[in-house]
## 1
Amino acid sequence: MTEIAKLGYVGVESPDYAEWRTWAPETFACMLGPDGDDGAVRVKIDDADYRLSIHPGQEHRLAYVGWEVLDHRDLDSLEARLEKAGADPRRADRALCEARGVQELVTFTDLYGQPYEAFCYQSSGYRDWDPPRPHQGFVTGDQGLGHVVFVVPDAKEASEWHTDVLGFQTTDIIRLNPPLGDMWFLRSNPRHHSIAFLQMDDMLGLHHIYLECNSLDDVGYAYYDVLGGDQNPDLLMRLGRHIGDQTVSFYIHNPAGFFIEYGWDGLPIPETEARSPRYIDVTKGKRAEMWGHHFVMQPNETVRPYQR
């Protein structure tokens, strides 16, 4: 399908980065990895040394998205394609590779200038999972770190670039009610989507990151016993089940300004399946959710006005 095998890691900056040191373990039973050189809080959900890195910064913003390829040959091939596409690929020096915990790394930008990285050989341990409370672990492996969703000014344009340049495949397209536009879901492995784009005119930024649990009980415990259920003031979407990837999940605002979706039972797409994208038009009365996921207005400090 593509040299990109899966979503590997995401880094953000935040003046409230230190809150993640307690927020992630207490809320989601994540482990903490060793701090970054700048004091960044590193969050572990599997054998990899980290999956999320929350760096100190003066404002809430995306710092980088790391896409994993399987080996150095795939990285060479992707770098050549990025060069032809004008994505400004650059080989990282040893210092940056060590900071990210990978052996080889190429930095580049997407069509809107957002910071991307492609890498191979991420540092990890063996059965290195010892959560702070009983937890059945997260779905990673060949599906990588959950998914990442961006607010973009043109979802179709963003999807076409990621398809043409990075080799993703479109899984679903959902037309939402105004003021939102279309939402496109793209995959690079059996996970229903590793990246998605939510259209909002003249806006750009990180919307949410998804963490998928192996057990529904861990989602329910976090929602009801840790967060207090429907009345938690930080919820963006209450517990529910999506139409598209069929995930049972909830969304919550986090101290770094964006949202975390915490869920279970995402729909896998077999790589051998000949599948055209599914189109769902909510404006024509189609169901937006199987059940639940009631929306509550929340700020997102990582999404900002965008001008070409």
## 2
Amino acid sequence: MELHQLEYVLAVAKYNGFTRAAEEIKTSQSSLSQQISKLENELGVSLFARTTRSVQLTPAGKEFITHARQIMSTINEAQRCISEYASFEKGHLLLGIIPIIGHYRIPNLMASFKKNFPRVTLSLLEDQDDELYGMLRSSKIDAAFVHHAVTDSRLKLYPIVTDQMVVVTSEHHPFAGCKSVALKNLKYENIILPPPSSGHHIDFCNACRSAGFEPNILITCSSVKTILGFVREELGIAVLSSDVAAMDWERGIRTISLTPIIKQNLYLTTLNNANLPPALKVFIKFTLQWIDSHNC
């Protein structure tokens, strides 16, 4: 049995005749008829009942057609996938990022990816976690770097960075001389946080509720530099990821450990789909290997 014989059978079944089938597959009627007869002899059954006026599938032919369609569909899909891999270097990826992504080593990761795959274009769309998840679910972006982990069977999350939250105060705040501060002791503090739709905000508020209180959030802001400016001016204290706080260290600011530890991880998230674009599959693999080698 050969693939072209399956194509011939499907064409004859489609048109219930040899004339139009031969035209579609661009072969002669005699060649078409010979190939189908050869296949029937090999199978030991007749696939078509032939009369002078029509060609109809036999019961065995109807069964055979079902499998032939599945086989050709699988082959076509395999060819499509391989074709995509052959040309993925010309692909384009639209990645969602949270505003503080630059405080991690993700820009360095993307630069490394571009050096290895210069013909893949990267576009970045900045927003908070909730908005990025919404865009990912509706396929408006290919992947996203987010803080907050969600339980959703439609999504797949890859841990990229493991971090934890810290308290940031002015040098004159009562906490400034402490090595650590208990989460419950933040109950009466004015707190400055990233926006409510950010993963950081969500995770911190959930931790406070688990500790038995609702945090008094004075200001929300997406700019770390602005948050630290408010802290330095003693409007309140901030709770940030330790990597973020460390990179934007300023004079007049103190960073204090928080207990119990509130983990703050960074994830690369995509749709949980085996048919992701080849360029995205390569980006995921490259990212995981790069993170592992750099021990971020």
## 3
Amino acid sequence: MAQILIIDDSLDCLEEYRDAVEAFGYSCKTVSNGKEALQALNQDPEFTIVLTDLCMPEMDGLELLDEIEVRFSRKKPLACILITAERSIENAVEAMRHDAVDFLTKPVSSTQLAAALRRANSKVSRLESTLAVATSGNGALADAKKLGRKLPSAIADEELRVFVRNMMRSRDKRSEFMDPKLFADADWDILLELFVASLDGRAIPVTSACAATNVPFTTAFRHVQGMVKKGLVKSWKDPSDKRRVLLELEDETAASMENYLKAIWGMQGFDAQ
């Protein structure tokens, strides 16, 4: 179960949110300002969800989210929920721009909070998968060695491309029998699509990357933005068509993806002759 960090300058609100999240089975810690929140996140790697008030002295909720993005986005998965007493279109847009998973208005009902926490947990799971791709390629190769598999260093690009496409088809086939929402992982779907494109030495439009997922376009686009912010994917405007944005894996991401996928190939016992 996720561990939650709650930030609010109101003691009454802190107690209310703490009681609610503990009733849902989560463990939590409460702090009264952004500075204490950053210290807590730095000291305890177990926090995965941040529940913060928007309007606070010294450092407001949006400024806190900025600091979290800069300090922790490459280190650990974190999902943030913003709460405010003054709902407005401007605040909602800013919350989305800062990649908050939800924007709740006081008073917050238990139903609203429970739904927001479920969405936050889903985001944390996606981020964990994305960070794992960026860091575990070499580890997967080591696992292949331990299993006595032949390391597939000689796998041709075409063979690897077919292997990845088969993974994608397997996902599509699974959706014929089970609800795709049960296995939605937009980050991974986008990374696979970009990796296949990288084997061809080409970039792809953001629309094509989003179409590779099983989520709505607006949701997929937010995933793309998140990966660009984290330095996993690079984006730029198409010189021949300024209305179109192109995407490509960063070199380090592409290398990690290649190592990981080759290792999976090896662990499954494919012959790489």
## 4
Amino acid sequence: MSRSVQVPASGTSVPVEVENPSEPGAYAVKMNVSVDGMTHSIYRNRIIREGNTSRIRKLSVNRPYIGSGSQLSVGLVAGASPDHYSDPSAEGVDAQVTVEADGEEVFSKTKEINRLSNTNTFEQLYFNSTVDDTLTTYTVSAELTANGKSYDSYSYEVDYSDFRNEVENVSLRSYEFANSSLNAEICGETDSGAPAIGEVQALVMENATLKAQESNLIEDCSSFTFEDVESGNYELVANHGSQTRFNITPGGLDTEEEDGGVPYVPLVMLMVLLVIAAVFYRGVKE
């Protein structure tokens, strides 16, 4: 609420009556003294309406972009009543978190908070769920209730397009040789694995000699065509702020190469274990 009063030139104080809030909690008070529209002084304080309640202090998500099959984690911090005069305690508080996208409920979960008081001022909760469909724009809501009474509620929209989505990693989705050209599809991602948008320069190298080059604006994935490149062995260099290199062979991109190939360290460990087993067997035999 807002109220204006006139202070007489001869007076130094004036009574100001405001309506007492109906719900327990802390309320901000701001007083602005102005003359002819010019602010001379600002005073801030707060008042506390006594009573039992609970407040949502923080509501957050683990990342703005959630890919299909990835985990969405919602963090909720609930706080006790700001009333430090009568020190009420809120017991059996239900904390409910709901996520919606395109008018459809993605998930809704409820957890119970045993007690909130001046000795247990805050409670941190996490609500996790694996999503079926990719989420780029969605609404996160939370509500605290007890005994059929709503203490507090809060919601906001998460829109991935509002966040930084520059190309930080690139991958080679596919390539093929056709009509004396090399056709490749390059994808860009952020560090969180979300689709990225940015300029990528791609070079086709043969024995450290430049054969062809092309620059494209990548939006998730984009196609590159390198003309006058016959089937053979090359190195594809992608510049995107940093540099990523890919080996190009006449056989194309096989399944192992798409999945990153066989990890080197586990392979070496397996070979070492086989050698140890052979030595042990020989020792036992002798």
